[in-house]
Amino acid sequence: NAGVMQNPRHLVRRRGQEARLRCSPMKGHSHVYWYRQLPEEGLKFMVYLQKENIIDESGMPKERFSAEFPKEGPSILRIQQVVRGDSAAYFCASSRGGQGTYEQYFGPGTRLTVT
Amino acid sequence: EDKVVQSPLSLVVHEGDTVTLNCSYEVTNFRSLLWYKQEKKAPTFLFMLTSSGIEKKSGRLSSILDKKELSSILNITATQTGDSAIYLCAVPSEGGSNYKLTFGKGTLLTVNP
């Protein structure tokens, strides 16, 4: 009964490199959400995806950030040309779909450090 | 813009004490309010409160929604050291979307033996 899985748990990148963060939703969940938690700040919504569709990316910076959730495989959050300000914990959550509001279950997060 | 404010920001108690954590919200189209517990890793889901479910209880934890006051409280009775964590409150955000959670900054609870 695996929960939401994320990898890697810790990622260190030098400025200018690319970071790829992966998320596998809970079994039976078809909706994925990415949140970012900066030091001393709350969790901030970035993007909401269903399989092969980006539903809402209003919280994601317009440049350097992209997300996908392919038909097969995990959801990927990609950050190109990382800068020090990208250092944060990135959490993925998943939920069931359909009408109404469903609780989101979070993964353990990926802690990105940009040196 | 939707807003969630939690208080206090931090709280230190002794084992056995009862604590009450507060969450107030401003949201265009209220649907629900969620409570999470965050230790060193993932926020763990605790409760979801809606207009049709304004009170929830699980063991020593309970939560009530006050739609008139636009707030919620989370009570923990007979606290234990394992309750030490950040408690987060969240509401689905503006525009009628039921997925974009707006979080408060959390209450850091420390329970000393």
In short:
Chain A is an all-beta fold and 115 residues long.
What does this structure look like?
The complex is a heterodimer of chains A (115) and B (113). In chain A, the strands form 2 sheets. In chain A, strands 2, 4, 5, 6, 9, 10 and 11 form a 7-stranded mixed beta sheet that branches. Chain A has a 4-stranded antiparallel beta sheet with strand order 1-3-8-7, with no helix packed on it. By secondary structure, chain A is mainly beta. Chain A is built from no helices and 11 strands. The mean pLDDT of chain A is 91. Chain B is an all-beta fold and 113 residues long. Chain B is 0% helix and 58% strand. Chain B contains no helices and 11 strands. In chain B, strands 2, 4, 5, 9, 10 and 11 form a 6-stranded mixed beta sheet that branches. In chain B, strands 1-3-8-7-6 form a 5-stranded antiparallel beta sheet, with no helix packed on it. In chain B, strand 7 and strand 8 form a beta hairpin. The radius of gyration of chain B is 14 Å and the shape is globular. Chain B starts with a strand and ends with a strand. Chains A and B meet through strand 4, strand 5 and strand 10 of A and strand 4, strand 5, strand 9 and strand 10 of B.
| Broad shape of chain B | globular
- How much of the residues of chain A is beta strand, in percent? over 45%
User: Which runs of chain B of at least 5 residues are low in confidence (pLDDT < 50)?
Assistant: none
Mean pLDDT of chain A: 91
Order of helices and strands of chain A, N to C? EEEEEEEEEEE
- Quick one: how many beta strands of chain A? 11
* Estimated helix fraction of chain B: under 10%
Provide the structure class of chain A: mainly beta
Number-wise, the strands of chain B total 11
**What portion of residues of chain A is helical?**
under 10%
The radius of gyration over CA of chain A amounts to: 13 Å
